[in-house]
Design goal:
By secondary structure, the protein is of the alpha/beta class. It has a single domain (35-158), classed as Rossmann fold, CATH 3.40.50. It contains five helices and four strands; from the N terminus they run ααβαβαβαβ. It has helices at residues 2-20, 41-55, 75-92, 107-118, 137-147, and strands at 62-66, 99-103, 130-135, 153-158. It has a four-stranded parallel β-sheet with strand order 1-2-3-4, sandwiched between helices. Strand 1 (62-66), helix 3 (75-92) and strand 2 form a beta-alpha-beta unit. The chain is globular, with a radius of gyration of 24 Å.
Length: 160
């Protein structure tokens, strides 16, 4: 009788756990956001957020730099302020494991901004930092050449 009551007790304890074992829900991957065909700032923010998320590869933090399109009122002022901020941030140093993401409908101007920001960075001082450039293919080589001496892991995503 003791054996039977013990078996019943074990069955009562194990049965709820066995019944709760469910398959993990299948999460469908969200389709990639397409690059905007115009200078719509909201669409570009959504696009950049998607590209950064898909390319973060375990980055501890992401720092995003977005420059609006050249037809934006006060574009030059926006460019000057962002260029100064980017240069200050990079000049202070970025800790390994972080990502710097740059993107703009004005790809050539963003490339100019990145080149300027990395101009005075000491060689090898940013090992383990990821730099993501979202722009046009013709601007990628210039950006890559500017950031390579710092020792970053460079990645390019063509905005097409």
């Amino acid at each position: 009788m003791k054996i039977l009551s013990r078996l019943m007790l074990i069955a009562c304890l194990v049965l709820p756990f066995a019944a709760c074992k469910k398959e993990a829900p299948v999460v469908a991957e969200k389709p990639a956001v397409s690059a905007p065909k115009n200078e719509d700032t909201a669409a570009w923010h959504e696009y950049m957020a998607d590209v950064v998320q898909r390319n973060q590869d375990g980055s501890a933090s992401q720092f995003g730099y977005f420059l609006p399109g050249e037809s934006t009122p006060d574009f030059q002022g926006e460019y000057d302020r962002l260029a100064e901020k980017a240069k200050e941030d990079v000049g202070r140093g970025i800790v390994a494991g972080n990502m710097l993401a740059y993107g703009s409908p004005a790809s050539a101007k963003m490339a100019d901004l990145i080149v300027g920001a990395f101009k005075d960075v000491p060689p090898g001082s940013m090992k383990g930092v990821k730099v993501l450039f979202i722009g046009k293919a013709e601007d990628s080589d210039r950006v890559k050449a500017a950031v390579a001496p710092a020792g970053v892991d460079y990645k390019f995503v063509e905005a097409k």
